[in-house]
Write a structure and sequence with these properties.
Helix content is about 80%, strand content about 0%. It has 22 helices and no strands. The mean pLDDT is about 85.
């Protein structure tokens, strides 16, 4: 594919970035251009400029917007919205925040929250599920201490990707190891040399930042029974239950506890769940528009063009590894799904590895690491949208506080340049 056709295939993404990011920077306000409007206009452009009859173009867009992966994501959004609103209405968040503030020293709130998120995300293997469970608590902590809300949300998003990157049951781990033919524990060891130092650096940064956090005042009253829905969600997720089952269980518990304790009536419970679902409306619309847009980009050859350009000039192991990382990161930008990005690039990554003698454990680690790094910083990824939606802030407000994803990316690049660790990089 020549440059002209390749740029044209990618032009819907260029239109989106220009409309959303550039216009927001010019206006100095990321609320001036709603991300849903940017996706809508870019989607209209994508459909209008694609080849084929209008029916064929719309069918392509609709297929991308309604894939099983997208629909599963929408179900999670709906249940997460209902659970978050119902839990808040009966006082779950206040009680959980009150308990954490009473047992964790003020200066250790940020590192404590980060470590908790890392543990939960690694245990449950899903960054989205971790964000659903812990962002409301993080938002409550920020409110109770009068501290920076985007910072606290950024802590959770970063910790969530630590687990997404390392967990044995993460989709990204499964995709990376199976596609490269290596064992999960081998990939884990190779990955740990990158992820653990990144987490350690960020943990120190949070400890230093936490020293300046304002002391909490007027601690919320703790009702231990009202902590049960959040505790149940976390424990059930740790046991490996499906995220939709976990959220449904949490919703039922909020109703039982709220109604039996007299905190809310049954119709109040219904109303709160409805408000939570409605509050996820924009996320649902954005997800479907993004899915349709990316499907058209893929059909027009945009992803193939990226892969072709990235592999045109490769020299040595460093070049091969850097190309693998860049490829999976760029495809993640186009698909907003790190698992899909790994699957898409896995074949060419395997060929590059064989050509330059790159250890397959190293390749699997780089695929997972760079996909998680990029997924952790794009403002239209499911994780960022979910976190921003639950905290009622813009994804762009969170981005300056994504310390872990940026540190992970930097250390991954450094590991390629300096050939570390030697046992895997060679």
């Amino acid at each position: 594919m020549n440059n002209k056709k390749g740029i044209f295939a990618l032009s819907p993404l260029i239109v989106f970035v220009t409309l959303y990011v550039v216009s927001s920077i010019i206006a100095n306000d990321f609320y001036k251009m709603p991300i849903s409007v940017a996706f809508m206009l870019a989607s209209i452009y994508a459909v209008a400029t694609s080849k084929g009859s209008m029916t064929e173009r719309i069918n392509t867009f609709s297929h991308g917007a309604g894939t099983p992966g997208i629909m599963l994501m929408l179900w999670v959004f709906v249940l997460a919205g209902a659970f978050a609103a119902a839990a808040k209405s009966i006082g779950c968040i206040d009680s959980t925040v009150g308990l954490m503030l009473s047992v964790v020293p003020g200066g250790m709130l940020l590192p404590g929250l980060f470590l908790t998120t890392c543990f939960v995300s690694m245990a449950i293997g899903t960054s989205v599920g971790c964000i659903v469970a812990l962002v409301p608590i993080a938002a409550g902590l920020a409110t109770a201490t009068g501290d920076n809300l985007p910072l606290y949300v950024g802590v959770v998003v970063g910790g969530a990707f630590f687990g997404d990157n390392l967990s044995f049951i993460s989709d990204t781990t499964i995709a990376a190891t199976t596609s490269q033919g290596c064992k999960m524990n081998d990939k884990f060891k190779a990955n740990a040399f990158i992820a653990v130092p990144a987490a350690a650096i960020v943990l120190v940064a949070y400890a230093l930042l936490g020293q300046t956090a304002p002391p909490s005042t007027n601690l919320p009253e703790v009702s231990y029974i009202k902590i049960l829905p959040y505790l149940t969600v976390i424990v059930a997720a740790l046991y490996g239950l499906n995220v939709m089952t976990v959220l449904t269980l949490g919703i039922v518990l909020t109703g039982i506890i709220g109604i039996c304790s007299g905190t809310i009536g049954i119709y109040d419970w219904f109303e709160n769940m409805g408000s939570g679902i409605t509050g996820m409306g924009e996320l649902i619309i954005i997800t479907m528009l993004a899915g349709g847009l990316f499907e058209i980009v893929k059909k027009n050859g945009g992803i193939d063009y990226i892969i072709g350009k990235a592999t045109a000039h490769i020299h040595g192991k460093r070049g091969g590894e850097m190309t693998i990382g860049a490829l999976v990161a760029m495809v993640d930008v186009c698909t907003a799904n790190n698992t899909v990005a790994i699957i898409t690039v896995s074949g060419i990554a395997q060929q590059i590895s064989r050509k330059f003698g790159i250890d397959n454990r190293r390749t699997a680690s780089l695929l997972d690491t760079f996909s998680c790094f990029m997924q952790g910083i794009i403002p239209y990824g499911a994780q960022m949208l979910m976190a921003a939606g639950l905290a009622h802030i813009s994804p762009m407000e969170i981005m300056p506080y994504l310390y872990y994803p940026f540190t992970l990316g930097a250390i991954a690049v450094a590991s390629i340049i300096f050939r570390l660790p030697r046992s895997y990089a060679g």
